[in-house]
């Protein structure tokens, strides 16, 4: 969007806004309703100006904050589907309220995605007041919410949720068997806070929903093996050498059923077909010392092209277990991935999204290439005055840590607050030990989920005089460091001391009378436990607290605010927050994130990195030049070298690493892309089936597909001969019609399948109306999931092997895509056929089972 257009919109918003200031509450409500009416007919873009202005006014009247111009700008850009870079502390939360409120009008849902539950709850509570004033519904999804709660939360106009909960809910929905268990609606619009952390740093981590460990079916495998050794080639089964596949003949199928005492091998409650076919393949197709070897009581796959033994790899779909049974070695554990997706892929499910962070510019290209998202930098409201000093380079790590310690002592003595960033938990703990030995009081922050709440408390006080905080890179994102400490937090702490901890302290007479009033009021209203919640949730719920408590809060706040103002001045005079990095991270973005903790909203501040020639970044990527150069320039081993040029060459090294990491992520993305598209299509159909009220149409459609497919194969004489694989019910059905498949009348076959289905339904409906329909859907959904899992396993196997095969001319990605296409197509075909087996002409296990049930 062009700057002048943006500026025009901003001034129009402000113009409209100025007309709202003097409205009464009722008049404002009326205005809100008018625009909402308009929104029903017009596009969101057409009401952006009015609605942003109303949101601004609602914000001022509910939480006392009026959006700055920079926030209006960010809001427009977010609505437009951009990534907005705004420095830490510039107010991204409030900026995002504008597009969130606007898109909330669509009634199709807005998801606001944050990195942890603490932030989701904080933002939802505060921003929620604005949305409620605008007559929009807002809710929060927590990891411990019930399904009913979750569904309600996702049904709200606006939903706050963490990235991981959002994705797991999606995965759970995708594998649900009951329409009443679905919690999410189709996706519409999302805003991702700290977008780089989710889409770049965590992009490669797939989220996996796995099935509980598959029950031990060792017995089944052994029985299947016995059966396989009994069955005779050509009489009972046929081998397709080229496809390394095995089919049962009709008599083979019957004998297998008979030997196993089963009506069908496809009973979803107790299926045998896979075990039987696998056992046959293990006996007749897979050869020891060629396809696999047995070493140390384990079966290892041998790569057919390179002859390499592939460790930690297993054949999927139960083949490996069948071979282990054949070779009488220990049968490996089987956990199955039910469903999986990466963040990269998940977020492409949204038709529209926007994102925000303090650090996006250095990854601009990646956001563009992979997500087609533009990055726009919104300048700070007040000029940035932080002093980013050139790096200090030490020869040895020891010299570096000594210097860090000395600097920390200096800060502690002067009182300037210090934030030290470390690259790992171990290093932060090492430094903490060092500080303990030197009697330097300090706090340690790490990003463990259970510590997130405490984390925010530490951050709240990290800007106080004398505060020293050691943090790992990612810790504490989302909370800003206020010089002199966060006054609101201090008030809460005081309230906690007064009412919960009841510490013995000298309390003024005024305070004592306050305490008495509050305790009395909560007691009278019989809601003493509410007091605890009220304190925890401050300041967002101040309006809902009892009057005495509200008055106490405000009085304490005024007092502490005065104290805070003095300390804020003092810390500013000390130079603001000093940010000390103890190592350059692989990517500049993470370093910038650390620096960005200082210099909030025009505050003074300093940042500097202490590095050593023994740091990984320099050792691995710095090249020999830096080393030689530094040694040449440095005469004293302990004193550092400080040079802009050196800083520059470190940044060059970082750029190299960034590019390398970007390539790997892009590679992952490209490989995932095809599966992702298949996933979308597959789960859309699954979902349709799940919510479909009349699933019969769906089944019949699938049958017709199968019939078409089959006839096509017959006509092209491809790979199928009617006389050999008679286990297929469809083939039997067709065969009963005519001798020459070429002359089949399609319509007749269709009709036959319809009639059969109707008959079956009529028959089972005698027992209980709708009985078979319900169990039918459930069983088919199970088939869906089994086939999808198998497809995933097959694809990950192909993925692993393909790079070995593709040495030379072929493009592995191309080949992978082709194989993915084939595998998917085959999978769908098999799935459809299995549905046929289950429902068309078996002596219907469900029917038998239900009869049994009724008789008992
Ligand atoms: P960011 O996410 O960009 O790091 P936050 O959204 O956490 O920043 O906001 C930082 C602080 O700025 C918060 O304490 C917030 O209350 C304050 N703030 C944001 N917008 C405004 C505004 N328009 N007027 C006054 N204070 C604001
Ligand atoms: Mg934030």
Key structural traits:
seven-stranded parallel sheet, 856 residues, 22 strands, binds adenosine-5'-diphosphate, binds magnesium ion
Task: Describe the 3D structure.
- With 856 residues, this protein is an alpha/beta fold.
- The protein has 32 helices and 22 strands.
- Strands 15, 16, 17, 18, 19, 20, 21 and 22 form an 8-stranded mixed beta sheet that branches.
- It binds adenosine-5'-diphosphate and magnesium ion.
SSE topology sketch:
Elements: H1 3-18, H2 25-41, H3 44-63, H4 69-79, E1 83-85, H5 92-104, E2 110-114, H6 117-133, E3 138-140, H7 147-155, E4 158-162, H8 163-174, E5 189-193, H9 195-201, E6 206-210, H10 218-230, E7 237-240, E8 245-248, H11 250-260, H12 273-284, E9 292-295, E10 298-302, E11 309-310, H13 319-326, E12 337-342, H14 343-346, E13 352-357, H15 364-371, E14 375-377, E15 387-388, E16 392-394, H16 397-414, E17 418-422, H17 425-437, E18 443-445, H18 452-461, E19 468-472, H19 487-501, H20 509-524, H21 528-537, H22 547-573, E20 577-581, H23 588-595, E21 605-612, H24 616-621, H25 623-633, E22 641-642, H26 644-691, H27 695-715, H28 729-735, H29 746-765, H30 771-805, H31 812-839, H32 845-855
Parallel strand pairs: 1-13, 1-14, 2-4, 2-5, 3-4, 5-13, 15-21, 16-21, 17-19, 17-20, 18-19, 20-21
Antiparallel strand pairs: 6-12, 7-8, 9-10, 10-11, 16-22
Helix pairs in contact: 1-3, 1-4, 2-3, 3-5, 3-6, 4-5, 5-6, 10-12, 10-13, 12-13, 19-21, 19-22, 20-22, 26-30, 26-31, 27-29, 27-31, 30-31
Bound molecules: adenosine-5'-diphosphate (ADP) and magnesium ion.
Magnesium ion (MG) is lined by residues 92-93, 193, 478.
């Amino acid at each position: 969007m062009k700057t002048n257009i943006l500026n025009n919109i901003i001034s129009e918003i402000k113009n409209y806004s100025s007309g709202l200031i003097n409205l009464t509450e009722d008049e404002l409500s009326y205005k809100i309703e008018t625009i909402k009416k308009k929104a029903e007919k017009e596009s969101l873009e057409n009401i952006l100006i009015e609605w942003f202005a109303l949101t601004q006014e609602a914000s001022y009247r509910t939480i006392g904050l009026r959006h700055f111009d920079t926030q209006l700008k960010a809001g427009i850009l977010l609505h437009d589907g951009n990534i907005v870079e705004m420095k830490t502390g510039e107010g991204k939360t409030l900026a995002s309220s504008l597009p969130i409120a606007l898109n909330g009008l669509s009634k199709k849902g807005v998801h606001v995605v944050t990195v942890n539950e603490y932030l989701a709850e904080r933002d939802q509570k505060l921003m929620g007041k604005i949305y409620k004033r605008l007559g929009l519904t807002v809710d929060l999804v927590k990891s411990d919410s019930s399904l009913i709660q979750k569904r309600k939360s996702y049904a709200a106009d606006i939903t706050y949720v963490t990235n991981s909960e959002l994705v797991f809910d999606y995965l759970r929905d995708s594998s649900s068997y009951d329409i009443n268990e679905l919690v999410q609606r189709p996706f519409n619009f999302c805003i991702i806070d700290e977008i780089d952390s989710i889409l770049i740093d965590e992009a490669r981590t797939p989220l996996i929903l796995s099935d509980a460990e598959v029950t031990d079916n060792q017995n089944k495998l052994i029985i299947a093996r016995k059966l396989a050794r009994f069955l005779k080639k050509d009489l009972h089964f046929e081998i397709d050498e080229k496809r390394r596949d095995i089919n049962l003949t009709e008599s083979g199928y019957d004998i297998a059923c008979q030997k196993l005492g089963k009506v069908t091998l496809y009973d979803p409650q107790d299926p045998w077909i896979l075990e039987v076919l696998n056992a046959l393949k293990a006996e007749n197709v897979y050869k020891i010392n060629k396809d696999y070897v047995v070493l140390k009581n384990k079966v290892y796959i041998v790569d057919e092209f390179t002859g390499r033994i592939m460790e930690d790899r297993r054949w999927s779909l139960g083949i490996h277990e069948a071979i282990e049974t054949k070779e009488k070695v220990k049968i490996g554990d089987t956990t199955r991935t039910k469903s999986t997706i990466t963040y990269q892929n998940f977020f492409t499910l949204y038709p529209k999204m926007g994102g925000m962070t303090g650090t996006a510019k250095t990854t601009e290209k990646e956001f563009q290439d992979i997500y087609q998202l533009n990055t726009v930098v919104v300048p700070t409201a007040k000029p940035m005055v932080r002093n980013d000093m050139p790096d200090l380079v030490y020869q040895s790590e020891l010299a570096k840590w000594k210097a860090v310690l000395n600097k920390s002592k200096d800060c502690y003595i002067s009182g300037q607050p210090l934030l030290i960033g470390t690259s790992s938990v171990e290093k932060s703990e090492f430094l903490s030990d060092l500080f303990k030995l030197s009697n330097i009081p300090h706090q340690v922050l790490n990003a463990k989920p259970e510590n997130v709440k405490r984390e925010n408390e530490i951050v709240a006080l990290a800007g106080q005089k004398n505060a020293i905080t050691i943090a790992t890179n990612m810790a504490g994102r989302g909370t800003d460091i206020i010089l002199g400490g966060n006054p609101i937090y201090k008030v809460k702490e005081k309230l906690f001391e007064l009412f919960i901890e009841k510490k013995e302290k000298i309390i003024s007479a005024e305070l004592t009378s306050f305490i008495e009033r509050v305790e009395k009021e909560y007691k009278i209203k019989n809601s003493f436990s509410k007091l605890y919640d009220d304190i925890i949730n401050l300041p967002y719920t101040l309006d809902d607290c009892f009057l005495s408590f509200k008055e106490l809060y405000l009085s304490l706040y005024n007092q502490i605010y005065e104290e805070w103002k003095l300390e804020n001045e003092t810390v500013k005079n000390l130079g603001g927050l000093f940010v000390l990095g103890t190592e350059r991270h692989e990517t500049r973005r993470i370093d910038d994130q650390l620096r960005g903790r200082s210099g909030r909203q025009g505050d003074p501040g300093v940042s500097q990195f202490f590095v050593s020639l023994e740091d990984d970044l320099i050792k691995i990527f710095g090249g020999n030049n830096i080393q030689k150069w530094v040694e040449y320039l440095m005469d004293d081993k302990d004193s550092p070298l400080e040079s802009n040029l050196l800083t520059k060459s470190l940044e060059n090294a970082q750029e190299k690493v960034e590019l390398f990491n970007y390539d790997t992520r892009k590679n992952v993305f490209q490989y995932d892309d095809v599966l992702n598209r298949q996933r979308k299509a597959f789960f859309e159909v699954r979902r349709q089936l799940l919510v479909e009220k009349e699933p019969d149409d769906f089944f019949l459609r699938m049958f017709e597909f199968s019939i078409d497919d089959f006839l096509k194969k017959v006509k092209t004489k491809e790979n199928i001969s009617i006389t050999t694989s008679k286990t297929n019910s469809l083939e039997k059905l067709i065969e009963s019609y005519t001798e020459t498949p070429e002359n089949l009348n399609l319509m007749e076959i269709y009709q036959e399948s319809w009639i059969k289905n109707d008959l079956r339904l009529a028959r089972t409906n005698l027992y209980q109306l709708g009985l078979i329909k319900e169990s039918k859907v459930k069983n088919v959904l199970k088939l869906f999931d089994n086939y999808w899992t198998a497809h995933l396993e097959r694809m990950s196997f192909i993925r692993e092997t393909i790079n070995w095969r593709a040495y030379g001319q072929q493009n592995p990605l191309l080949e992978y895509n082709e194989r993915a296409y084939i595998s998917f197509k085959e999978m769908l075909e098999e799935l459809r056929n299995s549905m046929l087996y289950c429902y068309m002409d078996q002596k219907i296990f469900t029917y038998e089972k239900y009869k049994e049930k009724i008789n008992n």
